[in-house]
Amino acid sequence: MSKIKVLSVFGTRPEAIKMCPLVKVLEKDDRIESIVCATAQHREMLDTVLDIFDVKPQYDLNVMSHGQTIVDVSNKVLTGVDKVIKECNPDIVLVHGDTSTTLNGALAAFYNQKPIGHVEAGLRTGDIYSPFPEEANRKLTGAIATLHFSATESNKANLEKENIHKNIYITGNTVIDALLSVVDKNHKFDDKNLNHIDFENNKIVLLTAHRRENWGEPMKDIFAAVRELVTKNEDVNVIFPMHKNPLIRELANESFKGVEDKIYLIEPLEYVDFANLMAKCYLIMTDSGGIQEEAPALGKPVIVLRTETERPEAVEAGTVKLAGIKKEDIFNIADELINDEEAYNKMAHAVNPYGDGKACPRIVEHIVEYFKNK
């Protein structure tokens, strides 16, 4: 059998974190010719991850521009990936998750009648507008994908509810492969202030908040709950790597006036620093999707600052709690985990439903098997 030409398409930092470990496994496999197309939907944040994993794209679309809209990104990715496919003629196109790069990369493959492999297939909240536009992106990608690489059984069940039954594979999530490769107990942070924090004798909470649907009043409630948490508990400090969005930064600075000694507002961290910060902290409060998968692998309880999650298996496993976006609910859940050791340990020791760090080799084997049987 001749080598299988695999084109991996991704463009954001979260996609890169989850796809780079897979690219590295593809590169080492004698049965595969690996080609990478970076759309650079995110530019700087993408480049740092590519450097960490030593991945060098053969194609770089560089679509990012100031003030770009979803339509702008979609047009550039669709036309750009279409040209790449026509030039390199891959046997299969791999996309990941639910970004504008994902959907439009998949559409370009579909229009060229190329098989599509969807990594992290089957995530669903059930609300087409939350998260926006990600829920629609992943549903539409699933409808045209050929191979569906699902992290969990419940992801597979979601696809089956949409009448997708062929070529669904449970692989675990590639983010665990990535995470376990970079966490080091002796890690030193680039931000030297983080190296002086007493993680052993204080309860350090890691906060991330950026989702579009949380802008405005929900974010005010989230920040108010965090402020109350550090005010009530002397041994609690919060580290908040602030999103680049100026609205979030302005609100954070305003909300945390007077408690700057308890809440550290820092710049966004590179992936390796962030992964190791998760490993060192006591508790995580987040509206991120990926962190719900990563933190349980490190034994860290997660409070999800959203009204729904596309990762219900984490809730069922007991590794995360869905707090919603109301101040009182968020505070009560966080305060219990800070002060109730039994409740904390129950979450910290729950089994991570997202796999064992071997998702990437499983995906490669399924790709090879698919072409062997064609």
UniProtKB/TrEMBL annotation:
It comes from the Bacteria. This is UDP-N-acetylglucosamine 2-epimerase (non-hydrolyzing). Its EC number is 5.1.3.14. The lineage of its organism: Bacteria, Bacillati, Bacillota, Clostridia, Eubacteriales. GO terms for molecular function: UDP-N-acetylglucosamine 2-epimerase activity. InterPro entries: UDP_GlcNAc_Epimerase_2_dom, WecB-like. Residues 26-367 form the UDP-N-acetylglucosamine 2-epimerase domain. Belongs to the UDP-N-acetylglucosamine 2-epimerase family. NCBIfam families: wecB. SUPFAM superfamilies: UDP-Glycosyltransferase/glycogen phosphorylase. Keywords: Isomerase. PANTHER family: UDP-N-ACETYLGLUCOSAMINE 2-EPIMERASE (PTHR43174). The keyword Transport does not apply. It is an enzyme of class 5 (isomerase).
